[in-house]
């Protein structure tokens, strides 16, 4: 795919992210690796739902803009860190989807074995430590996870996904937000009922058959586990309180 085709494709997925509500206003940034070296990325400080092809920024292998009158997002250094550590990655998506960012901004972990699809597709989603945007702190915070997973929550910030092409990177972000929403709502309602035992083993065993040989952190089998209530102890305590009255 030549650079002109990649420009159209990048613009298409920026608008998809915007239309799906995965990013708003000036939030987020998207990039693709170019054949022959360098990258194509979204510009700094622009609404991704409104940008045009001519607004996209071509950068070299060091992340410097090829055209002096254009400026890539200051967070492109985070994208660059992904490309440096993952030769198989050709596209990176960063945005602030609401439910995923709730998990990124809270003490909750997005790691349970709640959905059969998430168990197979991406397991648990790690959370990088809080870091200062537009500095090397963010690239440094994600580095330990880059070869373990294709999805990362950025503490108090947002989420990051990447893959062999833009469609894959986008789809992972969309699936992440879907999983985060379902997890949040089931926990809020108090009805979380994760998959347990051998079923988790069987589901993880399906990955190879689906052609999934990529980075993967298994879901946390202890997440969402409720303590078994000691009914006798509860009754005894109630009777004790009644006698005290």
pLDDT under 50 segments (min length 5)?
none
Largest sheet at a glance? 7 strands, mixed
Strand segment tally: 7
CATH topology call: L-fuculose-1-phosphate Aldolase
Helix content: 25-40%
Q: What is the strand content? A: 5-15%
> Can you list the strand order of the major beta sheet?
3-2-1-4-7-6-5
Amino-to-carboxy terminus distance: 79 Å
Q: What is the ordering of alpha helices and beta strands? A: HEEEHEHHEHEEHHH
CATH superfamily membership: Class II aldolase/adducin N-terminal domain
Helices and strands in order, then pairings?
Elements lengths: L2 H17 L9 E5 L5 E3 L15 E3 L16 H10 L5 E5 L2 H7 L11 H6 L5 E2 L8 H6 L8 E4 L3 E6 L2 H24 L8 H8 L25 H14 L1
Parallel strand pairs: 5-6
Antiparallel strand pairs: 1-2, 1-4, 2-3, 4-7, 6-7
Helix pairs in contact: 1-6, 3-6
Describe the structure.
The structure is a single chain. With 245 residues, the chain is α+β, with helices and mostly antiparallel strands. Helix content is 38%, strand content 11%. It has eight helices and seven strands.
Quick recap of the structure?
Helix content is 38%, strand content 11%.
Features of the shown structure:
single chain, 245 residues, alpha+beta, L-fuculose-1-phosphate Aldolase, 7-stranded mixed beta sheet, 8 helices, 38% helix, 11% strand
